[in-house]
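Teaching assistant here, posting this on the class forum so everyone can see the example we discussed in section. The complex has two components, and the goal was to see what a joint structure prediction looks like when all of them are supplied at once.
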Amino acid sequence: MILGLYNYWIVIVLMMIGFYIVMSRGNLIRKVIGLSVFQNSVFLLYLSMGKVRGGTAPILGDFKVYSHPLPSVLILTAIVVGVATSAVALAVIVRIREAYGTIEEDEIEEQDAAT
Amino acid sequence: MILHHLPVLEIVIPLLTAPVVVIFRRTRIAWGLAMLALWASFAIAGRLLFEVLANGPVSYDMGNWASPYGIVYRVDALSAFMAVFVSTIGAVVLTFAPRSVTDEIPEDRRYLFYALYLLSVTGALGISITGDLFNLFVFLEISALSSYSLVALGRDRRALTASFRYLVMGTAGATFILIGIGLLYMMTGSLNMLDVARLLPEATAPRTLFVAFAFLTVGVALKMALFPLHLWLPNAYTYAPSVVSAFLAATATKVAIYVFLRLTFTVFGPAFAFGTVHVQALLLPLSLLAIYTASTVAIFQTDMKRMLAYSSLAQIGYMVLGISFATVTGLTGGIVHLMNHALIKGGLFLATGCLVLRLGSSEMDALRGAGRRMPWTMMAWVVGGLGLIGVPATAGFVSKWYLVLGAVERHGWPVAVLVLLSSLLALAYVWRVVEIAYFQPVPEGAPPVREAPLSMLIPTWILIGTSLVLGVWTQLSAGVAHRAAVMLLGGWR
């Protein structure tokens, strides 16, 4: 029962790893990586719920069992949103680096406190 | 024919104008096109509101796919109300924008500003009228991603770090919402809000249902900056360009509160949220804490935009407080405060934008003697400030009135007295500005300053003036809010 749901365990472990990285790392790039891991774990959650054991994609042809296609479609959209988020985040980091000369959170805070 | 397509035109017009603006790359054309698109949206939203008030909810099946399978846009009294006020604020703030944008944003980025602004408005409008859970998530992200970029356009380099923090917390919130929606989908196999509400296994109340509710509530609370999840907001509003602060302060968090209302009342149902989970036990203390801590912090700020940002956090507290009563009066107070505060705070940020244009800074020090140097701008500011306090004949009074009535009805006098006492804190921070602007001398050797240009004063006064009108003539705001509240509660209690 518990082992049978192993993909949900992976989802939760990935989610917590991602969330922990976002909270604990001071390097902004690492934060973005953590954020991506966090988002991607949710994609796995959606895909897991649509999967039917032995099922294929419901494309015209010979198949008896097929997985639910809707979660996959939803996740395509969510992946686009995730990519856009990472892109905006990285663009902002580039500008932060130009303005502050660093991407370490504590050094940025020091500089802000000094002004 | 065209009437039938109004709900989708409301969204599609600003959405498609955004890329067109980018193609032209000219600031003036960008502004002109954006004006056309947003005033058109405003007209459509107004038409929809009349339609809904006269004939009941309007449904629109996207691409003609029948309702539970395709994406549906559903406009009821509350959504129409939200769409009208988002498009009003969007259009008025845009009318105000050109001078302020010229002053605060470098030339090569101005057309991009207008494109992002259009996307941000699109997102907020989409959230207001969609009837599909996943669509809701997509619109949340459209409005959020464009807001992050808009905040990063600020002059100060701290705008960049503020934008980054907003992005991290906003994305965490959105992902929580996505998880919640996924769990709902898992239980019901549907994404249509009404369909999900019908299929939810509330009677057996499996654990998944509670987990979904928890994820959605926390996610939305992050988006609406409910204390203690508000840390992204003060810096974002302080360092964003004035126009962006005005638009975000007036709409972004309000739209998140709308999402909370929609999910809690329409999808989960008040009986589950307030009867089984007792979410009010969390909302009531958090909202009171938000009101008191944020108002107190606001008193000690030296930057006017930051002060207004903290005041916004307190006002969000009032709205959530109204919702936590879960009675018709309390909800009416919460919903009407959405609109009133959007007008008041939008107007205040626009007046602050005028001050920034002429005085070059939003620091309180620069403000000394501004009451005599820019009388019309400061008068708008003071009228808005009175609205924040909730003085009779301003819109703020109407919402406080309903909130106090709701508090008495639900919890007796203690909560009502707390609401009334909190107005004193608002009085303290508003008075500080009045004192500096009117009773302190103009600093020696300050360059002469003219009144703000009419192109900025008129939009400012439109928002402030509307808030005064709604303070006296409450039919449009409180009347519609009351209908929305009755609809949301749907006979519960």
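For the discussion questions: The radius of gyration of chain A is 20 Å. The CA atoms of residues 80 and 86 of chain A lie 10 Å apart. Think about how each of these relates to the inputs above.
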